[in-house]
TrEMBL record:
Similarity section: Belongs to the Cob(I)alamin adenosyltransferase family.
GO biological process: cobalamin biosynthetic process
Pathway the protein takes part in: Cofactor biosynthesis; adenosylcobalamin biosynthesis; adenosylcobalamin from cob(II)yrinate a,c-diamide: step 2/7
One Gene Ontology cellular component: cytoplasm
Cited Pfam families: Cob_adeno_trans (PF01923)
Single annotated GO MF: corrinoid adenosyltransferase activity
Protein's UniProt name: Corrinoid adenosyltransferase
UniProt keyword Ribonucleoprotein, yes or no: no
Keyword ATP-binding: yes
Compartment list: Cytoplasm
InterPro entries: CblAdoTrfase-like (IPR016030), CblAdoTrfase-like_sf (IPR036451), PduO-typ (IPR029499)
Length: 190
């Protein structure tokens, strides 16, 4: 159970912050950038949910919860100590990646194949989902960059990769199953 009774602590006033294991690092450290951008992705999902209903809204709520799991995973650098820890940290699981894949396949089965790239837009929900897609793609790039120098749970990177795909397909669903997609017309304004 998390209890937050004091919101400001002043401990980060000099530009550092605590990771999940208590280590202090600069606020612009690669790990902080990665999980901070996961948090930003979650905030964009909150905006998208203002326009979502039904099963799509329920799926977005599940993803928002997963993103807190992902942030918790990325803020703990000491993966090699997980097995010996009295309280093992929360780590992303391959089952979460598989769930995204299953949902992508279910959404995609009723969509027509694409014959052009899609411009972000159409409905308000689709536009927001495209924003979610691009922010999650940035989070993925930062997690991959982090993994080049520090241990990162492979399931965390896979999840971010699938998430941007999920957002793309969900945006098509939000655009009347692709019927209201805004298609790119190469060289249209020359």
């Amino acid at each position: 159970m998390v209890v937050l009774n004091k919101i400001y602590t002043r401990t980060g006033d000099k530009g550092d912050t605590a990771l999940g294991n208590g280590d202090r690092v600069a606020k612009n450290a690669a790990r902080v950038n990665a999980y901070g951008t996961v948090d930003e992705t979650n905030a964009t999902l909150g905006l998208a949910r203002l326009h979502a209903t039904g099963e799509l809204d329920a799926a977005l709520a599940r993803i928002q919860n997963d993103l807190f799991d992902l942030g918790a995973d990325l803020c703990r650098p000491d993966m090699e100590k997980d097995a010996e820890s009295e309280y093992p940290p929360l780590r992303m699981a391959d089952a979460q990646v598989t769930r995204l894949e299953t949902e992508i396949d279910a959404m995609n089965k009723d969509l027509s194949p694409l014959r052009s790239f899609i411009l972000p837009g159409g409905s308000a929900l689709a536009a927001h989902l495209h924003l979610c897609r691009t922010v999650s793609r940035r989070a993925e790039r930062l997690a991959v960059e982090l993994a080049l120098s520090e241990p990162v749970n492979p399931a965390a990177v896979k999840y971010l990769n699938r998430l941007s795909d999920w957002m793309f397909v969900a945006a098509r669903v939000a655009n009347d199953n692709g019927n209201s997609d805004v298609l790119w017309v190469p060289g249209a304004n020359r």
